[in-house]
Structure formats: structure tokens, C-alpha cells
Amino acid sequence: MGTEDAQLLAAYRRGDSEALGRLVEKYKRPLFAFLSRFAANPGEADEWFQETWVRAIEHMNMFRQKNLLGWLFRIAHNLAVDAARRKKPDCSLDAPLPESGAPLADLIPAAALSPADEAAGRDLGRHIAAAAARLPVEQREVFWLRMDAGLPFKEIARIQRCSINTALGRMQYALARLRAELAPAYRELQESQP
Amino acid sequence: MNPHELEQLLLLEQSGELTAQQRRALDAALAASPEARRFRDQLRALAGAVPEPAGPAPDAAARIAARLRHKPKPVFVFQPAWKPALAVAAALALFVGVRSFRPVPAAAPAAETAAVAAAADDEWTDPLDADFTELESLLAAMTADASFEITEL
Hints:
CATH superfamily of the largest domain in chain A: Winged helix-like DNA-binding domain superfamily/Winged helix DNA-binding domain
Structural class of chain A: mainly alpha
Helix content of chain B: 55-70%
Strand content of chain A: under 5%
Number of domains of chain A: 2
Order of helices and strands of chain B: HHHHHHH
Distance between the termini of chain A: 42 Å
Order of helices and strands of chain A: HHHHHHHHHH
Number of helices of chain A: 10
Number of strands of chain B: 0
Oligomer: heterodimer
Helix content of chain A: 55-70%
Strand content of chain B: under 5%
Shape of chain B: flat
CATH class of the largest domain in chain A: Mainly Alpha
Number of strands of chain A: 0
Shape of chain A: elongated
Number of domains of chain B: 2
Distance between the termini of chain B: 42 Å
Radius of gyration of chain A: 19 Å
CATH architecture of the largest domain in chain A: Orthogonal Bundle
Structural class of chain B: mainly alpha
């Protein structure tokens, strides 16, 4: 663990609640962003954010990693990914419908897109977020741990308890699916490059 | 280099995890192929296009502190790295000690004694050795695998 983090935790242990505030502030952006990708709404993400910190502090005696953020993400993973698995629909969105043969997902508007966004069709970031929300949970997790939190694959592999190659493979599957789903937006992205 | 391998190297480049050998291979691919460079730019643009969600509630830290106030004060025991190693060594020593304390078999027929002696000569047939090897492997795996340090919450 970084010296600063260890000092802040020790200060909190001595009763300095501001020390905890500084730690929460330090890691709030990547941690909350990750949780937001799995939560149904900002309120749920907020609840998970608090729960992650409470569990981390409560179980700090079991923590022997060097990286506090990695430890926080491990707890966040348990909260968010388990919840995502519990919410798993009974039928697959990729399964073809009997009438048309088209996947069910094609009939469902992207969750994060408002009608205005859909009409404009230019908000690439929102398109990406909406398409990523339909990825299988392990791929979605790798995608956001890289994109939002900027974690290296080695750390992602630790969080997911898999090999680096598996984490890399999940990222590649995620990118392949996003490319397929966002083909027009991807072309736009390519054309925007110098 | 095929596109799959190229993408892997580009992803590792983005995350700062390229080895020196991979760096050389990627540089060569990028120098040789405009398509590879375009692919890299596309990946970078994708990362830049992802919108950042809003942050937690402004009073999140205060609410976390309030929740923790109602719980028993945590005990932070940052165990030194040598402690688990010492525990492993103690377990091994105990196992070896128990193993070496084998009862001497009572009088047995000559043929049976010879068979036991032959089996004892061949360490691969000793079930205790097999157990010992298995325990050693388990302990080595536990020591090598950092994820054993993480407790499932």
C-alpha cells in the first residue's frame, strides 16, 4: 500500500475522520464510475460506493495488498458483478425471435439513450455506454475497468481472478462486439481521425 | 503479426504493460503498416470518447464515516510479509516431524517384509511421499498466488 494511504488509514484509526474523507476523495472518480456502469441508477451506485468503503474499512485487517485501489475494486467487483448476475434476464437478448429471426436486443432501445440522442445519433460516448451495457458481465467489467478506472490488465486479472490473457481476451471480445454494434459510429470515429 | 495479436499489443501499450520484446514487435508493426497506425488511433479515440459518469453524492464521505461510527472500530493489522512464510515453514516442519515418526512394523512374514522394503526403496510408491508432494505443491501455489491474500467478502 502506498505510504500516503497507510498514513491516512492510520490517522483514521486514531480518530481523524478527515483522513477517511481524503481517501474517499482520492479514489472516488474511478470507483464511482465503475459502480455506475453496473448500477440501475445513480442512487444505487451511491449506495454501493458507500458499501464498498464500509466493507473495505471493516475488513482492513485482512488486506495485505500493496494497492488500496485494487482492494477497493475487488470489493466493488463482488458488489456490482454479483448484482449484475442476479439481475440476469431469463432469456438471452441475443436469442433470435421466432417471428423475424432478429435478436431481441434489436427491438429494445439502448437504455442510456434518450429519444433525442437516438434521433441525433451522434453522441458517440452515449452509444458506447449503451452498447457496453449489453455486454456479458465479465467483458463489461474488463471494458470499464480499463476505460474508466484505467487499471492495467494485471490488476484486472487479479480482480477477476483469472489470467492476464483471459482478461485481455475478454477485452478483445468486448471491443469486437462494440465494433459490430457501433459500426456507423465507428466509421465516424475513423473519419474523425487525422 | 495478425490483427488479433496487433490488438493485444495495442491494448497492452495503452495499459503500459508491454515487455521490451513486445514493444519492439509493435513498433515494427506500426512502422510497417498504416492500417496498424489507424487501428491504434481508433483505440485511443474510443477511450477518449467514453463519457465520464457523475461523481458520488457530495456528502458521501460523511455518510460513510457515519455508517462506520455505528460499527466496532476496525483493527488494522498490517501483517509483515514474513509472517505467512513463517506459518508455512512451521506447517512443513510439523508435517515432516509427524512423517518421520512412523511406528516400526511388528514381525511380519519374510516375503511381506521384503515387499515393504522394496516399496520403501522406491519413493514414488510411498503414499506418504505423494501426500507430502501434494502438500508442498499446495503451499507453493498459495505462496505464489497473490489472490490468496484477498479475502472474499
